[in-house]
Design brief:
Residues 23-95, 169-336 form the FMN-dependent dehydrogenase domain. Its EC number is 5.3.3.2. Substrate binds at residues 7-8, 94-96, 159. α12 (276-284) links the parallel β10 and β11 (289-292). The protein has a single domain, classed as TIM Barrel, CATH 3.20.20.70. The chain is built from 16 helices and twelve strands. It has an eight-stranded parallel β-barrel with strand order 4-5-6-7-8-9-10-11, surrounded by eight helices. It has a two-stranded antiparallel sheet with strand order 1-12. The chain has a two-stranded antiparallel ribbon with strand order 2-3. It is an alpha/beta fold. It has helices at 3-17, 73-86, 96-100, 104-116, 136-146, 157-162, 173-183, 199-207, 223-233, 237-245, 253-263, 276-284, 294-302, 304-323, 330-333, 342-352, and strands at residues 30-32, 49-51, 54-56, 60-62, 89-91, 122-127, 150-155, 188-192, 212-214, 267-270, 289-292, 338-340.
């Protein structure tokens, strides 16, 4: 099995078996102000939202996780079937393996999502570093692979720096992103992979014409930590040490959400989002939707029903947050009162200096 595909299998195994969680999203420091007299019926609250013209039942995104190894087909099938049933958005993992390797079983790990989710909002995924090798036609091939409604370009340079075989040439990526955003047939989302996007970076991406920013901030799965485990397995001791040193690096998700929303009107908040209440807090901070990845992995291994069960729980938590803030619609939730306390408030104050 080629190296790129093997790496995908390694990632899933490590996430399932090892400690790859960090803390510090900042959501614990965000309190939504309680409305004791909401004057609405909880069950009549409208949780729908629109993403690139596609109406979703709730502003919840099953974040890009995997694909590129035959063992991941089952996971993506369950996720996509649940996204179809619950009408939420879903992304696939990096499609590099599907673009570069001629393997039908491997390709199915991606194509299965549209096969089982003909109406769901699905987005593809390529790395910013790969845009230095790909042209727009290559990215269109990734769109066609899953009949994608949008394309994510992921920024994972800390992860690449820890990988023994990582791609650490980040020169020219912004120009390449701008070219893809200008010419691709579908909207372009630029997403981090667990280290956040600060204000100035969000501004540069907005000026480059990207259609959305997924902040994927600090506080959830640490890809630096994952790569540290991989480095240890192959005896790359120095890379392991670097990976452990940087496992808690990044801009906290709550901070990144606020800063990116100041620069772009379509922000997806991910990175340590673990509940419907977190999604509600993210939307109050300015996001259009909240995304989760790791919490879906174990349910996806169990099957579609388990993923649907988690989505239903998230939706009820989100609806409850709307109810007790008096928010009848997602747009009203975006205007609800909130308070930021503790380290997150200190972080924001320091950033404003």
């Amino acid at each position: 099995m080629p190296e790129t595909s093997d790496r995908k299998d390694d990632h899933i195994r490590i996430i399932e078996e090892e400690d790859v969680e960090t803390s510090g999203t900042g959501f614990a420091d965000v309190d939504l102000v309680h409305e004791a007299l909401p004057e609405i019926h909880r069950d009549e609250i409208d949780t729908t939202t629109t993403l690139f013209g596609h109406e979703l039942a709730a502003p919840i995104v099953i974040e890009s996780m995997t694909g590129g190894h035959p063992a991941t087909t089952k996971i993506n099938r369950a996720l996509a079937e649940a996204a179809q049933e619950q009408n939420v958005a879903m992304g696939v993992g990096s499609q590099r393996a599907g673009l570069e390797l001629d393997d039908e079983a491997l390709l199915e790990s991606y194509t299965v999502v549209r096969d089982v989710a003909p109406d769901a909002f699905l987005y593809g995924n390529v790395g910013a570093a790969q845009l230095l090798e790909y042209d727009v036609a290559d990215v269109e091939a990734a769109v066609d692979m899953i009949d994608a409604d949008a394309m994510a370009i992921h920024l994972n340079f800390l992860q690449e720096a820890v990988q023994p075989e990582g791609d650490v040439d980040a020169r020219g990526c912004l120009e390449a992103i701008e070219a893809v955003a200008s010419d691709l047939s579908v909207p372009v989302v630029v997403k981090e992979t667990g280290n956040g996007i600060a204000r100035d970076t969000a501004r540069r991406l907005a000026e480059a014409g990207v259609d959305a920013i997924d902040v994927a901030g600090k506080g959830g799965t640490t890809w630096s930590g994952i790569e540290a485990y991989r480095a240890a397995a192959v005896g790359a001791d120095r890379q392991e040490q670097v990976g452990q040193r940087f496992r808690a690096w990044g801009v906290p998700t709550a901070v990144s959400t606020l800063e990116a929303a100041d620069e772009h009107d379509c922000v997806i908040a991910s990175g340590g989002v673990r509940s419907g209440l977190d999604v509600a807090k993210a939307i109050a901070l300015g996001a259009r939707a909240g995304g989760l990845a790791k919490p879906f992995l174990s349910p996806a291994g169990q099957g579609t029903d388990a993923v649907v069960d988690l989505l239903e729980t998230l939706e009820l938590e989100f609806r409850t947050a709307m109810f007790v803030t008096g928010s009848a619609t997602v747009e009203e939730l975006r205007e609800t009162d909130y308070v930021v306390l503790g380290r997150t408030q200190e972080y924001l104050e320091q950033r404003r200096r």
